[in-house]
Amino acid sequence: MSAPHSDHILRVMPREMRLMSERILSMTGQPKGFFLALQDLPMYSQKLGLGGFALLEKRFDELCGGRPESIAIVSEDAAKMRLDGRGQHAWFALPAVIDLLGELVSRFGEAEIVVADAVDLEEFKVAEAFAQRSGLSVVVTIGHEAVLRASRRSLSGNVRQDDPLLWSLLEDGLAIPGELWWRIYHQAKKALAADSVVSRRHAGPMIVNQDGTIIGRKDNDDETDVSFLMAPGAETQTESTNP
Amino acid sequence: MTDMTQPMSGPGVTARMRKASQVMLPESLAAIQPSRLSGARAFMNRMVRERWDISMVRFDVDSNAEGTVVYSIKAPDREFSFIGFSRPPSRTARTGRIIGRAWDMMGTLNEGPATEADIESARRELPKLYTGRATPNALIWCRSNRSMRVFDQTLEALAAGRQPAIEDLSKVCYLMRNTGLDGNGTFGTRSFPSLGRDHPLGGVLQAQLLTAYMMREYSCDLVEHLARLKSDKAVRLDPSIRSYLGVGNGSALGLIFFIHKHPRLINAWIGARETAIAKARGLELEPADGRIAQLVGLLERAVTFRRQDRMVYEAFTSSAEIADDLTQALSALKAFRDSGRMYDEIHAAPLDVLVSRFEKTASPEALETLLSLLIELVPEDADALFAEIDAPDEFVVSPAETLASLAELIRRDYRWALDTDMTTADAYKYVWYKSETAEEPRRGAREEVPDALDLGLDICGGVQALMADIEAADPSSTVARLLLGHPEHRYLVARIQGLRDEQFHTPRANINDESFVPIDLVRLMNCGIHGIDKTRDFLNRNLRGVLYHGAPTPDEIRSGTAGAWFYPAEPVQ
Hey, is the C-beta of B468 within 8 angstroms of any chain A C-beta? Predict the structure, then answer.
């Protein structure tokens, strides 16, 4: 394959950023129902000039050992709450914090949550943009703890108004240094299953056995190169064989 | 996912909507047939209605099929361009699967007229695929391959000054087959949600479907062009044959991921279809009503189409059987036209009686064909329903909902998932994954790919685990507090809450189970939603079919004169 233009600034779209985040997060060992809900956070972080994809790369090992279920409420007084982050990464705490802000706002009209002992506290700033789609206006103050104050925000059902940061990303994408993006791309590829002759039998209109015999109809109009499906090793990248 | 038995609200809906428990079974979804609400048909109808102007700008292709083509596509308020690069067919690494690496055409659909910079960028970047970058005005990157045998037969015939034999063409009904349509942000293409609903291609799948149509046009132009280069005696394709030829399409397992990732879209589309069907069934029609004659004509067209179908199907109902069933419906309808009685009954809504009787005797595909044809009787309603399909993908948690309320919602809408036995040996037999090679979606026995991450959505197992944790918690507690301690349920809770009160979003199946037939949902997407005809099945997991079978030519679109074009009869030679 051709070497990507690593020295360029690339325009990367949300679909790609979400896919790469999802794949990398899938390798942390966290439950699927959890990491699927985190796929927007590196993208929002990048857009806001916070840690972004470089942070995802840097913190990957810590995320693998994360225990988001250990985050706990340590005190609660009407609309005010204090959470112990138990050393978890801010991205792992953030969805739960937004939920709790939402619950408190629905009851009291406003809410304040202080989070202590979380990694990369400044990443809680993502909540200012990310919580908008949940109908919350959030202001985040970062000191030795993160303080998130929320009030109700009306939703229109229109992404442009309800989630302006996402709308901006959908319209224009995000300028990301090529070198960083292609590192992320290759890390994410590790989440995909290794190719093999056996695996290649798990898709397609026919199955090619090791001896070259075929299971299935041959009238698929593909003009399939059977030797290609039987080759023990396959290219891990795909690009045209045409000149 | 309430299981509605009452009429849907809205003017004109007087017959019953079908229940989700009936519609959302995989085998029922598999039987859905193309209709006015299918993407290709809806988009073609729009192009004809708005008289889009499609023209060839450049066709610099040599006798070896090497070269560059450019088309202009003018919608009422803006212009698009299709830039394609023709390549001589290569037998090496050729396959219809996504892992193939030999393509006879690679192209891009762009906003605006093609510039030299656009052409050169596409020429440089398209072959790189996953490591290439689209220009900011690119909507779709695409690839297609010839049907070698039929393309060559057609080329030889045209070069010899004659038309290709219909019996050859009708074995596949296309010259080239789509082998990849990528957009919505892939490779840096534009995000579709940002196009907005006023954009000519802002509707569901419309950019992909315009590109597929351009593949059809390109394939016909290419074969005519190569014939001219080959012989002074060459003739052009007869217009009736040119319309008859569609563009081929192969689809497979990735569409199951699409269905699970876009439940709002699935719900909106199926809901629109079921609403249109209910409206049509409820029509109060006299025997002399023009819509009865229209339906007779449509049924006759469908019967002929099925009788002439030369495709071989593996597990699907044969076209001959479907034609026989449709003939029964046609007879009943003609009897009503002639006597005023439908199955010896006088009924204000005769089509409701027809459907009620037909569904007891006909094959599922024949029934769904009839229902698709009924939609043609309510065109304004159907087109308005299609235009309203809008489905953002994002889901958020409703954190203040009590667990008692969430439990009630789950028991009401996901009873089928709660009742699915996930303890059997076969319940998790298969895993859904993607290969590092071209990210091809695959499905295999777990023991054969022990390290693969399961990318499938385990609705049944997930709902059961969620319900167990809800039942172990204080029912007056909130969703926010449940998810604090059980973050593993976050995605599913947001999905369940976000789809509250909708009924057509999730196929009722455990996709990991031995008994699940993948092709059922592939077929829903291809036949029902995309509008692909003559879908041949392979190993219960792959489909080959024809898009734009019988679709108008650019001249007909430009003049706005195309009538009912689907279910084309074979051209007479």
Answer: no
DSSP state for residue B345 in the 8-state scheme:
B
Q: Which residue has the higher pLDDT, A221 or A139?
A: A139
What integer pLDDT is reported at residue B101 of this predicted model? 67
**SS3 of residue A118 by DSSP:** strand
User: Which residues are within 8 A (CB) of B450 and not within 5 positions of it... i.e. 6 or more apart?
Assistant: none
Quick one: which H or E segment has residue A104? helix A90-108
pLDDT value of residue B96: 65
CA B272, B274, B277, B283 torsion-angle sign: negative
Q: Using the CB atoms, write b or e for A33-42: b if 16+ within 10 Å.
A: bbbbbbbbbb
Nearest-by-Cβ selection for A11 from B97, B145, B188 = B188
- Using the Cβ of A225 and the Cβ atoms of chain B, whether some distance falls under 8 Å is answered with yes
Give the list of residues 6+ apart from residue B406 with CB closer than 8 angstroms, or none.
Answer: B470, B479, B493, B496, B497
Stated pTM of the model: 0.93
Would an 8 Å CB–CB cutoff place B400 in contact with chain A?
Answer: yes
Number of C-alpha atoms within 13 angstroms, CB side, residue B121?
Answer: 18
Q: Is B415 left (phi over 0), alpha (psi -120 to 50) or beta?
A: alpha
B186 Cβ contact partners less than 8 Å away, ≥ 6 residues apart: A13, A15, A16, B141
DSSP A138-164: EEEEESSSEEEEEEE----S-HHHH-H
Q: What is the ipTM of this complex?
A: 0.91
Instruction: Give the tokens for residue B160.
Output: 């010899």
Q: Which of A10, A106, A193 sits opposite B452 (nearest CB)?
A: A193
Is residue B151 packed enough to be buried (19+ CB in 10 Å), middle (13-18) or exposed (0-12)?
Answer: buried
CA distance B41 to B290: 22
Chain-centroid distance, C-alpha B568: 19
- Residues 172-201 on A with a CB inside 8 Å of B are 173, 182, 185, 189, 191-195, 198-201
> B183 at the A interface (CB within 8 A)?
no
Distance CA B532, CA B547 (A): 5
Nearest Cα residue to B458 out of B393, B399, B516: B516
Q: What average pLDDT score do residues A112-139 get?
A: 98
Nearest to A69 among B252, B451, B487 (CB): B487
Query: Predicted confidence band at B12 (pLDDT cuts at 50, 70, 90)?
Result: very low
Task: Specify the range with the lowest mean pLDDT, choosing from A34-48, A125-139, B90-104, B377-391.
Answer: B90-104
Question: Among B178, B84, B269, B141, which residue's Cα sits nearest to residue A13?
Answer: B141
Percent of chain B with pLDDT over 70: 95
Cβ neighbours of residue B141 under 8 Å, at least 6 residues apart?
B106, B107, B108, B126, B129, B132, B134, B180, B181, B182, B183, B186, B187, B189
Q: From A1, which residue of chain B is nearest by alpha-carbon distance? A: B128
B201 φ, ψ to 5°? -115, 25
3-state secondary structure of B194: helix
